[in-house]
Amino acid sequence: MQKRLALILAVVLSTTAVGTLVAQQAPARAVQPAASTIPKISATKYTLPNGLEVILSRKPGIPMVAVNLYYHVGPANEASDRTGFAHLFEHMMFQESKHVPEDTYFKLLEAAGASDINGTTNFDYTNYFETLPSSQLALALWLESDRMGYLLDTLDRSSFANQQDVVRNERRQTHENTPYGPAEEQLIHLLFPIGHPYYGEIIGSHQDIQSANLEDAKKFFKQYYAPNNATLAIVGDFDVAQTRQLVTRYFGSLKKGEPVPPITAQTPPLTAEHRKTVPSRVELPRVSMAWLTPAIYKPGDAEADITATILGGGRSSRLYKALVYEKQIAQDVSAYQQSLQLQSVFEIDATARPGHTAEELEAAIDAEIAKLVAAPPDAGEMERAKNAFETSIISGLESISGLAHRLNIYNHYVKTPDYLQQDFARYAPVTPAQVQSFARDQLRKNARAIVYAVPGQPELGPQVATPAPVKAAEGEGTESVNADQAWRAHPPKSGVAKVLVLQTPLSATLANGLELILVERHDVPIVAASLVLRNGSDSNPAGKPGLASFTAAMLDEGTTTRNSLQIADDVARLGSSIGTGSSVDASNVTARALTRNFGATLDIMADLVLHPSFPAQEIERQRASRLAQLVQAKEDPRDIAPRVTAIALYGPNHPYGYPEVGTEAAVKAMTRDDMVGFWKQNYVSNNAALVVSGDITMAQLRAAAEKAFGSWQKGTPERPKLDSPAAPAAKIVLVDTPGAPQTQVRVATLGAPRSSPDFRPMQLLNIPLGGNFASRINMNLREKNGYTYGANSQFTFRRAAGTFQVGSGVRTDVTAPAITEILNELKGILEKPLSAEELATAKDGLSNSLPGAFETNANAVANYSNVFTYNLGLDYYANYAEQVRAVTLPQTSAVAKKYIVPNQLVIVAVGDKAKIEPDLKKLNLPIEYRDAEGRVVP
């Protein structure tokens, strides 16, 4: 489910690639193009006789196609006593239909190599999408048309009840068992009255979800899931004539539905300030304030977007500078416009630093709004906001799934996919005075809702019982809408596959040893880059957990020529993004920029890496932030579970046994000398690669890299030797979270390093076990039993031995049964190894999905960064499919026996001890009690 979608449809100034890096020699200053260079997206829209709208947009290149189907229905169309129904029905659409057997939808698409399969419910619409090889387009259309035309033929009482359980588990996981979830829901309740379509905040209430019945679903389907209330967008590498024929074949015979009733809801204005304090399972208070603002694409909507960016759009924004940087009273702050059909929402959220209050945050936010009311933003702020929109939208055009979504968004709200030019026309003329007027007229104290999330026990309302499993005759309650067609009974055969020939990326090495790796592509004027160093937290000295991470975090906090805020402003002025960070095996500085601004962006990257100054005052500010992060990590069971699992497997002293940020004691003790020492030893040119993908040639990249990094010196980086911990003994680790409506469960043991020859068989073993939606574990816990919103397993590969673990958030009252089912599945993979069909399906999915791994520049950069980190060789992906196909069934069986050893499985349960401990004791395993930081407690 997509709970919130902030539709910031960005200003576009240019997508024309610049032949040379014209900004290379300039300081961090964006080049302003002419408005006439706004791209014209080629898209054709037509309508079938039954009312289905079809949008086709060819984007040749990678042999992939995105299928994106919008149904023009969401909570905006719901009845007042059926909140959450549109989202509940989204789940129903992934069940079986007349010609697609149960649990087959995901299985078929995953085997076909689909890299993006999901559905989302927005306040105003519901969409379903998949991205897959072009040769499999017919499969996607067959599946989408079958559930559009034949869902009710198999929708019975049992399958409906199962998805009610799943959706209620989703509500627990995403709203009730997250630190600020209850407060977020209350904010919406203060903005919209009971009975308003947006009041249910998409997910709806337990009472309404459980009260829904099969007749409601059938009525909803026939009213809203008809061809005349849907739009199908297809984007990618396809033949237009053939695709039109396929669309007609699969959708043309489906019956047109009755006219959809218009939405009549009215949104009453706020005429007073509405407040509520919400006790929450948090350590740090948060204030959220929101206003009702102009609807999407209406006058004032564009001004709201720009105002939000100026106020709270990143490190260059006013609220960040005031609350996080200067006053240091906030851990984080953001502002955004959530543009919607009936009424948009302008929201500001800020989380307090330890020792500070929601009242302080509110006063500081009000002061910044008052400043904007008193005086308009300056030209630099306007430039930074507009350039950020430009980069955002052009980056979105890289992905065929992103483009398909954008075309459908435009069509849904303004009835045409051809709206990019008009969208630009909304943003370009926005003036500083208009932003000032928006703040004055819209962001008024007497027309807003404010929620404080404060430490306390959440009030989740009356419990709604989960009924016993429905016992109904198979097919009870089904009906037909469309006449059967015999040819639909079998999946279509694949078309002629277009082989993706992955060229080995271009490479070069500078005189100082810096390696350049380039994936050259010129479809959009965007360049993504990552400077990767082969040292991460694995290189932390004994007793200094978090040093690699702290060092990386300090890179953009000041150099010898720029302070922290100057860095943020320079990057924002270019419309670029730069981030610094570390992982267990690497440190990196990443960037994304328009082609014309890449040279200037690269210069800033080099300044951060070559000339960090580690200012004392910034170290203390960052220290406070990191200590607050550690406090926040104790709030969320989804953070607690992996942390406790790691320390239970590796112990507190192994680099893999603590979080990347480190520990409270280590963060407090870290010194400037520690960071400078780590930087001097490991941030050296012969330990790094600059991995780049996008609209740039090797000659241009080499010239830019020589200019930016040519003076970087070689060195002798740390090459750590990590001890292998002893195999764990089976046990239960229980972390008490009183009142939790859900238990976060992990079942884990030690795995293998990335260099292991077992890597590929382990990878293929995991896919049918728990690595995808149609896996054994997820089908058991979610679809068969309704215990969870989702369950998965994975092998984590690192330079030293990683882990194997199964993870899920399960309903509190079925914690022990859910763990039992996980253990049964793990024993089952030993007693009933993968079948030939399961292995073949996993191989097909893994090899066929390879094109999706390179759909965007960021994808390509991430993949080849891993290639560099683990010394896999630049021809790794050229040999990928061959390696996958070579894995045998005996190999998968052997690695299952080697790595999934029942008496070495550690079970971590983060939940309400009083409710789950009695049944956990029945599992006859020793129970160890730990706190949220992983420390053993009596």
* Highest CATH level, the class of the domain at 506-709: Alpha Beta
Give the neighbour order of strands across the main sheet.
Answer: 1-2-6-3-5-4
Number of distinct beta strands = 23
CATH superfamily of the domain at 506-709: Metalloenzyme, LuxS/M16 peptidase-like
The average pLDDT score comes to: 92
Task: Kindly describe this structure.
Strand 20 and strand 21 (803-811) form a beta hairpin. Among the domains are: 274-455, Cytochrome Bc1 Complex, Chain A, domain 1 (2-Layer Sandwich); 506-709, Metalloenzyme, LuxS/M16 peptidase-like (Cytochrome Bc1 Complex, Chain A, domain 1); 731-853 and 872-930, Metalloenzyme, LuxS/M16 peptidase-like (Cytochrome Bc1 Complex, Chain A, domain 1, 2-Layer Sandwich). 39% of the residues lie in helices and 17% in strands. Mean pLDDT is 92; it is low at 1-37. The strands form four sheets. It has a six-stranded mixed sheet, with helices on both faces. The protein is α+β, with helices and mostly antiparallel strands. The radius of gyration is 27 Å and the shape is globular. The two termini are 40 Å apart.
